Amino acid sequence: MASTIKDVAKMADVSISTVSRVINDSKPVSPEARRRVLHAIEVLDYKPNEVARSLVTKKSNIIGVIVNDIGNGYVSQVLRGVEEIGRMFNYDILLSSSYGDLEVEMKFANLFSQKQVEGIILISDILNERLMYKLDQIKIPYVVINRFYTIDQAATVSINNKNATYKMTQYLIDEGHEKIGYVALRKDMDRTNETYKIKGYREAMQQNDLKAKIIYAEGLDQEAAEDVIEDIIEDIEDKRYTALFCTQDILAIHLMNELSDRGIRVPDDISICGFGGTELSEIIRPSLTTVKEPFYDIGAVAVRKLLKSVEAKQELKRDTVFLPVEIIKRNSVKTI
Amino acid sequence: MASTIKDVAKMADVSISTVSRVINDSKPVSPEARRRVLHAIEVLDYKPNEVARSLVTKKSNIIGVIVNDIGNGYVSQVLRGVEEIGRMFNYDILLSSSYGDLEVEMKFANLFSQKQVEGIILISDILNERLMYKLDQIKIPYVVINRFYTIDQAATVSINNKNATYKMTQYLIDEGHEKIGYVALRKDMDRTNETYKIKGYREAMQQNDLKAKIIYAEGLDQEAAEDVIEDIIEDIEDKRYTALFCTQDILAIHLMNELSDRGIRVPDDISICGFGGTELSEIIRPSLTTVKEPFYDIGAVAVRKLLKSVEAKQELKRDTVFLPVEIIKRNSVKTI
DNA sequence: CTGTTAGCGCATTCAG
DNA sequence: CTGAATGCGCTAACAG
Q1: Segments in chain A forming alpha helices (H)
Q2: Per the CB < 8 Å rule, is B48 touching A96?
Q3: Is a pLDDT exceeding 90 seen at residue A188?
């Protein structure tokens, strides 16, 4: 059995209050008593029981993180930021993965609430409004991180999607491209960031007197990429596109694969760029020119926002913090 | 303020013991009392405080997971298994990332111990013997998951590395390859699994009267791949290798990239295969033939082993559980 | 079946 | 500066 504050008190021949005081440095203790206490702590290898402490202080120093899927590269990158900054604030992370099940997420919220987490971070690709409503009800502060959906009613950290696609489109134009297609994801579009992304693209095209052309994909996987390519293969062969700007790296990569299977070379025959800046985009050949989202920073800023409000005991501001993106210029885009 | 057991008792007009009994279903309660309690719980939206409960039951239902880096794909895949199975046992996960700092890992162990975790899972690429020693001392059961190092003194889950490389080598031979090189990682080799991997490869070669040839890489990154290729480029051009078996997927992919840069086609000019079965191996073109390590299962089995021993309150068996691997046949290997 | 009591390990009044 | 006493929210004897 691990030793308790009582054991230390007995050994140091003081009361448990005194021991508590030297541990927390909460009130003056005579040098002599302190010495004895410290010595006893050392000898007994005493470590305060955080559970007992939490019960009385009502501070668990734990935040809950509910993610869609830890195995997802995006999620785990954001999680890095959350974990590292959380730790700087002396908070531990209770982690759970919902695999997209909304009901499961609700259960986790309850569980975490029972474990007295001081706040929750949601990292997901889906939107769970009921969960947010519930968290509001039980008054647990939370920050939402969602790559796809636009969140308005909660504290969240994101990038300026419109600005991001604008910049990339402008970059392509600066490289001499005029026939640029944007491959968008058609899914729940009215509530997702895709709307903003398309706006940024359109705006850049318009301002350069270029014609915007949106190509819709039904998903991000290989199959979706195949469909897209089949739809536009003739246009590509007829050189009616010099560049394709994809809404996600993974889709861009699948597109490149499909193109390559059909003997179309990137970037010689057509330029491709992505969005995300995932690890993949760097390793793939040709390496992918892409918009780098600051995943780590998003997590870091979110947790900082959360914990600052927790520590200050004042309500979380329900706004969106926007972080800057970076255009990573690599080899999938050719200068014309 | 959230409601407590007292509030429920008062509202249901029973004692707190009765409330506790219906919550835990620990002792018979009259239907009438139960009804009233349940009603009160419903109305007050009462949720038991797990911290208080932990304090008295001495069960936190939390396990600590110390990882090298959550951002690492291997780690996050294993973590999936740990999380999902842990949850089946009704355990939550306290997560921390050490980024390879041994001292930091020691601190986490202390922290977790103070938070009364019931066990710890170590997922790492490095070896921290002091940490294991410490966990033994403070008597926290733990399971080690380490892709690289061979662990003998602790409970661990792994694959049979020798058998795995044997099988892949045999597969290559079955495909008609005779001049097969094995690209190994030269680093701490006497304590890592590389030794076993090489053994498996050698054995398969020997049994087929083929000459084994080990090529050493100094790392897994692009630079290391470049060095390897430079070392053996002439041998490759002279067709003195028909296949290269790489000790890790990522290295195989970098190798493929380097080869492609030099105009050598995979698998037409040379076959390549990897080890790991990471997401990358599937997406890359040509898709990589590889040994698939069951990352998810490794995590799942590890946590099951840990929790079974915890629940049974009997000491963890300090052995290695071996899980089967699978040869994934894709397009980077050509039949000769 | 039920209520009273003690106590988990600790922080924090309140006297001294 | 220090100790005794109280209670955080809950479970688990114990007595009825």
Answers
A1: 5-12, 16-24, 31-44, 50-57, 73-88, 102-114, 129-137, 161-174, 194-207, 222-237, 249-261, 279-283, 295-312
A2: no
A3: no
